[in-house]
């Protein structure tokens, strides 16, 4: 399979991103041709993104991804704007995209509602996403549930192009991340996210004391009453524990919880210990990679490989549509 996926360079990578997406990206590297893209053009649609932060966030995210196990020997890791063919294909695909379809995109409608100034980039965002994928003739795209609509649109765009200009693009299929949906520790009714502020996520590279504080103050409940279901906050702590601790440990805590003998303080302390143990090698690798200072070279080499594929496809597209 040829896999393509993208992630925006916004701030820091958190546990939700890791367990919900990146861990699967790493696993997919075995036996597939993987292309992973830091989508800075997409991030520009975010009104609050300032230039200095954009530059910093791209490199920082690249270091995080490598530390998590994205291997530039196995996969192509690159920054979107280093391959300008993305924007060229975006324009061409825009001309086979239904305006009506774009007005029906849930993410666009949601974001447009939230802000006063709605830039056109936000409206065109799903076309650029389709261009990202189709530019590499990728057939599989690991994404979270919220991106399924965009992927469905990518397939419609591919179909429409193929119909008008002859079969070229595969219709990209989603690989729905089987990863868990991690909730905010401070408000377990919402997903862990950067958008709600620092209390609502745990960064992979975050300071230990700060992680400890967030886990210790995680919302739980007043204890399980007979016949009652686990509250969302406690379920979220168990979910995280399952991801980082051995099965026996989790089982033991579950038994105690059922018997009404679980002290949440113990659950939190244990979660903290196993989480830090789990993250230690990632954090260590991140430090080493940062010290080496080779991230720009790695991204430049990735862009070079991406451009080689992109250029072939764009050449064919230009031919098909009559631009050359
Ligand atoms: P975002 O930065 O929110 O666009 O997320 C980047 C990737 O991480 C997407 O593939 C999301 O599906 C995934 N992701 C974000 N937050 C969570 C979460 N709380 N739980 C699981 N996956 C998440
Ligand atoms: N829109 C995706 C997100 O917010 C990021 C993205 C951009 C993407 N281009 C892509 C994901 C291509 C998959 C394939 O998560």
Structure write-up:
Helices cover 56% and strands 7% of the residues. The chain has helices spanning 15-28, 40-43, 51-68, 85-94, 99-103, 106-114, 120-134, 148-165, 208-216, 232-244, 247-258, 264-292, 295-321; strands spanning 2-7, 33-38, 76-79, 140-143, 173-176. Helix 1 links the parallel strand 1 (2-7) and strand 2. It folds into 2 domains: 2-179 and 294-321, Rossmann fold; 194-286, Tyrosyl-Transfer RNA Synthetase (Orthogonal Bundle), CATH 1.10.240. The longest helix is centred in the last third of the chain and has 29 residues, at 264-292. Helix 3 packs across helix 12 (264-292) and helix 7 crosses helix 8 (148-165). By secondary structure, it is mainly α. The protein is built from 13 helices and 5 strands. The chain has a 3-stranded parallel sheet, sandwiched between helices. Bound molecules: adenosine monophosphate (AMP) and tryptophan.
What count of structural domains?
2
- With helices defined by DSSP (H or I, 4 residues minimum), what is the helix count? 13
Main pleated sheet: 3 strands, parallel
Radius of gyration: 22 Å
Give structural attributes.
3-stranded parallel β-sheet; 7% strand; 324 residues; globular; 5 strands; 13 helices; binds tryptophan; mainly alpha; 2 domains; binds adenosine monophosphate; Rossmann fold; Tyrosyl-Transfer RNA Synthetase; two-stranded parallel ribbon
